[in-house]
C-alpha cells in the first residue's frame, strides 16, 4: 500500500490522499494480472479492457516517489535502471487508478 493524490469524490475540485496498490487489476480479473498491467500506453489506454473504464471516468492521480525503475535494453538484456531527480527531491508520477469492489482501496496504474 502507498499513497496517491487524486481528485476528491466528496469535494469536487479538491484533492485527497488515498491508499492504493500497484498494478491495474479490473474487477473481472485475478490479482495475478497486476504484473501484466504496469504500463498503460497512450495510443491504447482508451481501448484496452484493463484501462478503458478508468480512462473514460478520468480517474487520474499522482504518485509521489523517491525514484522508480525502468528496464534498459542497451545490452540486449533488461537491466533495471533507477530514475530519480539529480537533487534528490521527490518525483511525481502521473497515473490512472481503478477501484476494485470488495477491496477498500484504489488500484493505481499506478
How would you describe this structure in keywords?
110 residues; mainly beta; hypothetical protein yedk fold; 5-stranded mixed barrel; two-stranded antiparallel ribbon; 1 helix; 38% strand
Count of domain modules: 1
CATH topology, by name, is hypothetical protein yedk fold
Give me the secondary-structure category: mainly beta
CATH architecture: Alpha-Beta Complex
Distance between the termini: 11 Å
Residue runs with pLDDT of under 50 for 5 or more positions: 103-110
Globally, the shape reads globular
CATH superfamily: SOS response associated peptidase-like
Number of strands: 7
Strand arrangement within the widest β-sheet reads 1-2-7-6-3
Task: Give the helices and strands as they follow along the chain.
Answer: EEHEEEEE
Radius of gyration: 15 Å
Reported for the largest beta sheet, the result is:
5 strands, mixed, barrel
Query: So what's the CATH class?
Result: Alpha Beta
Share of residues in helices: under 10%
InterPro entries: SRAP (IPR003738), SRAP-like (IPR036590)
Enzyme class: hydrolase
Family: Belongs to the SOS response-associated peptidase family.
Keywords: Covalent protein-DNA linkage, DNA damage, DNA-binding, Hydrolase, Lyase, Protease
Amino acid at each position: 500500500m502507498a499513497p496517491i493524490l487524486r481528485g476528491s469524490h466528496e469535494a469536487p475540485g479538491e484533492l485527497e490522499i488515498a491508499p492504493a496498490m500497484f498494478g491495474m487489476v479490473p474487477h473481472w480479473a485475478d490479482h495475478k494480472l497486476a504484473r501484466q498491467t504496469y504500463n498503460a500506453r497512450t495510443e491504447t489506454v482508451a481501448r484496452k479492457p484493463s484501462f478503458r473504464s478508468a480512462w473514460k471516468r478520468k480517474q487520474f492521480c499522482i504518485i509521489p516517489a523517491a525514484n522508480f525503475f525502468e528496464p534498459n535494453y542497451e545490452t540486449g538484456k533488461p537491466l533495471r535502471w533507477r530514475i530519480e531527480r539529480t537533487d534528490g527531491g521527490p518525483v511525481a508520477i502521473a497515473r490512472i487508478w481503478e477501484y476494485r469492489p470488495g477491496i477498500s482501496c484504489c488500484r493505481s496504474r499506478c
